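@channel sequence for tomorrow's demo:
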Amino acid sequence: MADDPKNSPAVQSMRKEQAEQRRRARKGELEAGLEDTFPASDPVSVTHTAIPAGRTDTESADRISAAPDPYPTGDDLSEAHDKKDAVRENVRAVRHDAAKLKESLSGAAAGSVDVVRARTRGALDDIENSIREKPITAMAVVAAIAFVFGATR
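structure tokens (generated this afternoon):
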């Protein structure tokens, strides 16, 4: 008969690995700590946490245990449905307020854009007037800016 699949190299390797894992699991914490720190120069020690597992503040523990259950059961279901309806109504009110706020902000933004356009137009008119009043000075300023720009490129 052909080779037995239970004795194949893959199966033997898997069994060897499992045996090694079981052996490691049987070792104590100190030996595992030794293997984890070797060849470091730190002394071997078992790690323990200084953080307590339970609550040490009795007032806080009492406050939490006295808090109502947030998940309704039995008779509380009718109250939960009433709360659900109240939440839905609050959501509708918030949506309505958000729509009003959106309209208000879009109106304010449109007004701001108009103000910016008017101020920009006024600034451009002031520049045009300055150029018309003193064309030679304007040309000298443009030439100086062009020279600096060209020199830095």
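heads up for whoever presents: Residues 87-153 form one domain.
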